[in-house]
Amino acid sequence: MAHSYTPGLKVSERSRITKRRILPIQGDVLVSEGDMVTHDTVVARTALPGDVYPVNVANMLGISAAEVTRCMLKQVGETIEQGEAIALAKSFFGIFKSTAKAPITGTIESISSVTGQVIVRGAPLPVEVMAYIPGTVTEIFSGEGVALETTGAFVQGIFGVGGEVNGPVRMAVEHHEDILTDSHISEDMKDCIVVGGSMVTAEAIRRARECGVKAIVSGGIEDGDLRDFLGYDIGVAITGHEKLGITLMVTEGFGSIAMSPRTFELLKSRNGQAACVNGATQIRAGVIRPEIIIPATDTQQKDLPPSPKEGAPTRIGDNIRCIREPWFGRIGTVASLPHELQQMESGTWVRVLQVAFDDGSLAIVPRANVERIEDNNL
User: What is the model's pTM?
Assistant: First the structure.
């Protein structure tokens, strides 16, 4: 039988998770291989070059560009403070004086006798990369960053916004089909990762942000509510850099879609445990999924049995999710994998599989229209 591979969201009760924490430019790595880190450990540090500010000294002093060099009080490479005089011109036997002052604190980068401009480079911008997940440093990339490893529950979502946050898991609803509304959000959820059911409402997001909730994980969201929350339409670029005061991750899609029972029960079983959430999403080349990672406790690491390895081909019995209409968002299992190509209503011949849904119904679905829900347990 020909193997079928379908991209899939990972939903794992116990997985070995590796994260690369890399600086945007060369810098200093602050940890060593084998070190144990927590989520807020700074593992690498660097400084980005400051912004460039052109200062038209010739115009400010009322002199020609060629005269700028001899009028400078500060030279290339010297540091300056905001408001400090960097150039001085005298006229009428020294009685009248004109000064050019630094617009920012920084460094003189260049002086031009052609344009009469002085280029000032702002102070370096410090950048720190934190571990994000608690675990062990497994590899050092000299001057760049590190690789970290931990073991725990790992769930990927369909879409998210907002950056990396940490906090305890807090179940807000009882059932995977329950809608997460503002009535489920309370002030004692401050700094928590709140888990909902089928959908989160715009009012619930606003209430959660007011209460200091770190992140919301739910089955779906209405696209209109997401647009109102963000203040703009989401394009195809990567998300995760938004400054929203809260991170949002949806596990199933847009609309009122119930969270997968398996995902919901997994998160429910980790209620109260520390979790790490990242809403970063990229749907183009170099796919990035939003995620929630719940590091395993010592007891969980010992008690969980090994399971099938990640990367196996799609087989009968695998859990899948339909990602195209008319079954979009529905979850089922692979009932059969026909060898022959089948003709669709559009007239195209494609490879298909038969899906058994939870209500007992069967459907023939193009293999390109499903996504396997991977269980990549150790």
Answer: 0.76
